[in-house]
Design brief:
Elements lengths: L5 H25 L6 E5 L2 E5 L10 E2 L9 H12 L6 E4 L5 H9 L2 E13 L15 E5 L5 H10 L6 H14 L5 E8 L2 E11 L2 E9 L8 H17 L3 E6 L4 H8 L3 E11 L2
Parallel strand pairs: 3-4, 9-10
Antiparallel strand pairs: 1-2, 2-3, 4-11, 5-10, 5-11, 6-7, 7-8, 8-9
Length: 274
Amino acid sequence: MIYADKNLARKLERAEARANASCVEARARLFPESGAEWTEVGGAYAMFDGSAESPLTQTFGLGVFDEITEAEIERIEAFFRQRGAPVFHEICPLAGVPLLTLLSERGYRPIELSNVLYRPVEQEKSFDPLAANQQIKTRVVEAGETELWARTAADGWASEGQELAEFVFQIGRVNATADGGFPFLAEIEGRPISAGMLFIHEDVALLAGASTVPEARRQGAQNALLEARLRFAARERGCTTAMMVALPGSQSQRNAEKNGFRVAYTRTKWQLDS
């Protein structure tokens, strides 16, 4: 039994922070002129992903590992200020009320909520191939296929607007090269129809970035990708816990709960008013 306590929160928060730090490192490697970098302050990872618009330009794990004082907050704010970026913090409720009070006193306000979900994964679990769409095949992308993966992921967002799809493509082609990351594709007769990302840190598998092209939806691609990533994480990398993040009450959360995930806690994203 895995309990949703502070020990679990530390595992999950560090896994996501480490995955995102790897993406920042990938951007710095591919685009050194971007100025992408990250630093650790009081156990939290503060990240600048080369632009103020990147969803990775923020902190993860603030207050979960160490007690945070004004001195640490000021160091973090200086990190973002020097790079012309706004200051955002993803705050786990297990960081405690004193941190929320400190943020409020410094002019922060809550702007977003997200649920962190988790489930155990077992190496010996029997995956039933008959429960899946037999036409769908899944695999980890090979070297030289990062742009194919990124384009498939972006096409899954095309119905939300071309600007968003292009944004997803540009981020995806970087993140697909990150250390500890395994980009997965789902295909029908060799044609990519869905993309999903798997990051592994220690024994935690982070599932992220799943999308399906509009014309191939409701055929089981998302379930196939979910099962493939869980199987790979358990059997090939020895993971014991899987996690994912979803908007409260969203379809993504419902899909996760149908597949055995439980809500560990609800995070609040805080922004410093300029």
